[in-house]
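FIELD: query
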Amino acid sequence: MTVQSLKFLVQGSAESPYEVKFTLNGENLNAFCTCPAGQKGLHCKHRLSILAGESGSVISGNQDDILIVKSWLPGTGVEVAIHNMEQAEFDFTVAKGKLSRAKKELAKALLHN
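FIELD: result
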């Protein structure tokens, strides 16, 4: 089994750029970022932006490699996890709207009773 790896330098909020490394080993896709969140194993926007095909923060001159990394995504656990996160974000947005409407209804009911 061939292990493939690609690295990117991305400009984040810090003065020095972060390094984002993607490794594909069979169906296992791994990504590491040197940003504070990435070093702690937390949600990292730098990894996700590259997986989404966004090149705006990449400063290493290998923007074409983003398409390669994106092509590694289908069929991986990372693809499933991204889908689940996006669904949860959508559900959260819907719930926030319902809560806002319920609070307005409560405010009206308190004034009219």
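FIELD: remark
Residues 1-74 form one domain.
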